[in-house]
C-alpha cells in the first residue's frame, strides 16, 4: 500500500519565510496608515516616501486576500477587514515593543532611560516639576528630553520612538492617554511703534489691520486650526507664515512692525524672544484664549511597559496639580 507523500520541510520553510516578511514591518506600515488616515502623514511618521509605503500596503492586502483601506479623494478609511485587523495588529506590535522592557526588568538593571518629548512652549515649571517627581519617586529612571513641535512629537509617540510627550493641546486620539498639566493665558506681541503708550490689554479687533505671523501650521495643526477660526471671528484676515518651525524669525517681523504674534504670558520660550526688542506683550481682552500643555502617552504601553507606567504615575502625581488655569467653555 502506498503511503501519502510527506510534505517537504524545505517547502514549509520557504512558505514561512514568505509569510514572515509580512509580519511586523508590514503591520507597522498598516497601523501607521490606519492611525494617520493618510499615506503622506504615515510616510512622514515612518521616515519613508509615500510611494513605497503604498506598495507595501498593496503587498499586505495581496497576502491577506482582502482590501484593508478605502482610498477616496484626500481621505483614507478602513474597510471592514481593516477595522477587524487594526486592534489585533496594534496588540501584536505593542507586545513586541514591550519585549525590551520585559528583558530589562528580568535582568534587574538599575537605570532605565526614558525618552520624553517636549514642545517649545512647555514652561520651565512643568519641565522641572516632572524631572523632580521622577527623581523623587523613580530615581532609577534617567530622562532624556527630545525637543520638537507638537505634531512630530505625536507621530514619534505613536511610532514608539518616545515614551511620553509634553505637547500643546488639544492632543489625544485613539489609543492615547492624556492629562492636562497647565493653561497659560495668551497675549499679543506688538511693536511698540504700533501702540500708544502701555495699554493694559488689547483686543484682536484692534489688530485687524496687522498681519498675524506664525510658524508653519504643520507643527500643531489642531491648535492653528482653532486659532485661525478665532482670528477670523475677530476680523484678522492677513497672515504671514514662516516656512519652518523656527520661532526666532517671529521676533524680526514683530519688532519691525510687519506683523503681530500671539504668545503665552507665562514662562514660554516664545515670549522671552521679545525681551530687549521694541515690542510690547499685551494681554488679550474679550477672549479666553490660552495655550494648554498636555502630557500624552500610549495607553497600551502604559499597561504593558513598567517604564511608561512609572512616567504616567509621576506626571499624574507630581505635575498635573499645576492645572489651575481658566477652563475653556
Poorly predicted ranges: 1-21, 323-329
Q: Give the topology string: H per helix, E per strand.
A: HHHHEEHHEHEHEEEHEHEHEEHH
Number of helices: 13
Percent helix range: 40-55%
CATH architecture of the largest domain: 3-Layer(aba) Sandwich
For the termini, the CA-CA separation is 83 Å
The total strand number stands at 11
Overall form:
globular
The CATH class label of the largest domain is Alpha Beta
The total domain count is 3
Fill in the CATH topology of the largest domain: D-Maltodextrin-Binding Protein, domain 2
Look at the structure and name the CATH superfamily of the largest domain: Periplasmic binding protein-like II
Radius of gyration, in angstroms, nearest whole number: 24 Å
Structural class: alpha/beta
Question: Main sheet, how many strands, which sense, barrel?
Answer: 7 strands, mixed
**Beta-strand percentage range:** 15-25%
**pLDDT averaged residue by residue:** 83
Short description:
With 329 residues, this protein is of the alpha/beta class.
Question: How is this structure best described in words?
Answer:
With 329 residues, this protein is of the alpha/beta class. The protein has 3 domains: 9-97, Arc Repressor Mutant, subunit A (Orthogonal Bundle); 109-181 and 292-322, Periplasmic binding protein-like II (D-Maltodextrin-Binding Protein, domain 2, 3-Layer(aba) Sandwich), CATH 3.40.190; 183-290, Periplasmic binding protein-like II (D-Maltodextrin-Binding Protein, domain 2, 3-Layer(aba) Sandwich). Helices cover 43% and strands 20% of the residues. It has helices at 9-20, 23-36, 39-46, 50-64, 80-97, 99-106, 124-137, 150-158, 221-233, 248-255, 269-272, 299-304, 306-318, and strands at 69-72, 75-78, 112-118, 141-147, 164-168, 176-191, 212-214, 239-241, 261-264, 279-283, 290-298. Helix 7 (124-137) crosses helix 13 (306-318). The radius of gyration is 24 Å and the shape is globular. The chain starts with 8 loop residues before the first helix and ends in an 11-residue tail after the last helix. The model is unreliable at 1-21 and 323-329 (pLDDT under 50). It comes from Gordonia desulfuricans. Belongs to the LysR transcriptional regulatory family.
